[in-house]
Amino acid sequence: MWQAAQNKAVWQLMLFTLISNTLFMIRNIAQYNANYVWLGLNNFQNQIVWLMENIVFIVGLALIKKYFINTSWRKLNLIGMGIVSTMNLLYLLIIYDVTRNVWFYVIFSTSESFMFTANFLVNVFCIIEVAPANLESVTYALITSTTTAAYPLATALSIALMSFFPILNEQDSFAEDTPAVRNAMASLTGIIVLLNWSGILAMPMLPRQRAETRKLVKKKEVSKLWAALSLLAGLAALIYTTIVTVKTSMGSCGRVFGGAGCEGKKEVGLYVAMCMIFGFCYLVPFYHIYLPILKGKEKFSFSMFV
Fold first, then answer.
1. Considering the entire predicted model, what is its pTM?
2. Cα–Cα distance between 116 and 59 in angstroms, integer?
């Protein structure tokens, strides 16, 4: 495992999947209460959503295989981001009561499945190309473990963001449906869309296609430091998200654990945790991508994102 992780092609992909998936998958969990109160979403309709998500995933696989197999992996991610952001912004129509038809939500809420499909295929394609000989299974385990760690970390950040909007924590607030509730919901939605799109800053760390990936592998660059940081970041993400999950189930009031805040206590831990997570997500791409540009070693171009 250590031998595989030292290859730049491997640890760079590990860092990209952790950073991009963490930022891409932050979502507005206040929608669960909003859907129940505003839309009257029931279990049957939830099952329809689940069924449609699986259909979208299968259709997405087929479309990418037939039409986009040679498309830049960066472009696939951008397409997925665009679809998810558009669907998230459509929720503003529900927030401001332009329409609160439950089937309108059921149809557009399946967009995340396409994003998952794009990310899943990009990760699989990359793993095939970067895996050293005789270390294929280890490489697959390293990268998929990092990818898996990103999802609960994104959920933990989603819960932490909710603590800044305490009015959205209760179903009663949505039942009152005041302008303050609507504006708080819209603000949270806007923040999440911006955070999702900020993942584009790490996009140049992802090779565009097989040829670029093979070129990176042939350089045979290694780094014990970045291999260690990649492994430690993935492990830290798993530990933190486990703690958040346990504390949340126990009804912890601490915002750092996803609670609504403890009365009379300053939530310093929350700000420290969020600064560390977001700092990691933005400083790593800055060091590898933008610092060389500032030093004049590389040139900036918008094409680096596609």
1. 0.86
2. 12
